[in-house]
Fold each of these.
Amino acid sequence: MTLPDTDAVHPAQADQAPVVQEPAAPLPNLEIRANAGPDLAQLMAPPPRTDDACLACKSVYNYPIARWDKMPLSVLGLPRSEREARHMRGLVMDVRQCATCSHVFHSDFNYDHIPYRTGSNLVYNDGSSWRQYHDDLVEEWVRDYNLVGKRVVEIGCGEGLFLERLAKHGNHCIGFEPGPDAERAAARGIEAYAEYFQGSRLFDLRADALVCRHVIEHLANPLDFLEDIAIACCEADLSPLFFAEVPLIEKAMEQNRINDFLYEHVSNFTRNSFRTMFERAGFDVLDVQARFDDEVVTLVAKPTPKPLQRAVRLKATSFQKSVQRQIERVRTTLLAWQEAGLKVALWGGTGKGAALINMFSIDSGLVSTVIDSDPRKAGGFVPGTGQAIRTPDHLRVNQVDRILICTNWRARDIEREIRDVHGFDTDLYVYLEESIQELGPETRL
Ligand SMILES: [Zn+2]
């Protein structure tokens, strides 16, 4: 998914267009503030567990911040008449802050209320300090991360203003923009796609860098969005730098400023929650900075190498391929035993034994005798296939030629029971390495 909000600026920022002249005073550290003099009675309250998982870290512990029951859209819903304005749909905005990562998010957000595909973003992108900020940011990222002659994909490129700046450094710029601004981006010479971005597009686009600015705060599932990209990077054997920017909520929280909460901004990031979300999604975070008078936060990350994902993929693929093969192999062996007139018993009729019997479709026509060590199972029947489960004594008067022990992890105990307790010298077999094998002293289970 991607959204058409690049180059967006908060209405609050746009109206005031603060001038960045000198480094802002550092934002207060939340932990230091909490330690300065906590209200112990308040902190001793039960944990605020809710049904609403944090959008950044998935924790279900959060604190209510504010709630409005009838808020109109404010970024993508500019009415064209007074009547239309007065009749705009009122939406529930329930703002909470995550106890674990400090993320501020809406718990009652419905993406369907927002017309991203048809609506142009109406935020104000002009203003000299905001433009200067973009110019400086591009220069900094180009210099610090050698963004020259690279393939850069921007997710939610809007009209392509940011990519246009990057293109001046010899970068091949590709933009995704599902809204009507895609055409304007194309007119700027950008390879523009009027569609939502999916991680799978990285296979053909082979990006060296991803840019995603003022998009992630709009997503209903930002963590899924990032994980999709991280997983795709691993599969495509790519390690692009990821440059992200969103509004920063810390200053608004510090000032108890409520008009930063917009329905369209389902997420309001702190530096910590922005970093936490990227790390949780599978990225190594290289840099996080509050910028533009501490009203936005930028982050640079790289997909974390995922040897486990590679290993899991190889194992899962080979396991899946083996299933049909081993079913055929085991059944072939049992059918051959049947044709040879050998009498067979299965040892273990519930749990893994029942699983084996069902997975290999060993019905009573193929093997009718099922024994179990546990006397409580006797008198019952194998789930699914229906053979009667009997005690070992059954084999004294109904001798068999072969016993297939159905549970490997108990096979040695069962072997001892068969040999030492019951005194049977029947040939023993186990299901091992995709086939039926004789159980000998050297067999490695
Ligand atoms: Zn969280």
Amino acid sequence: MPTKKPAKKTKKTKNPNTGFPQGMSCPDCGSFGPFYIASEIMLKVYDDEQIEYSSPNWGENYVSCVKCGGVGNMARFSNKNK
Ligand SMILES: [Zn+2]
């Protein structure tokens, strides 16, 4: 009788992400990125061409894992079990 093996995870590995995707990992395959993130972004534009951006609903952004295609929102991809 075939048994379904659970997806291999790397939960015990320390998350190396310290830049933009800090603390993020895929809940399905354990990948630390890269990720596709679909976001609604507000741009603050200055006359000297400086641009600042923010995402008012960051936690609700749609995320997709490039490695396995797993999807969810930012909360699902945020590693809260350290
Ligand atoms: Zn994945």
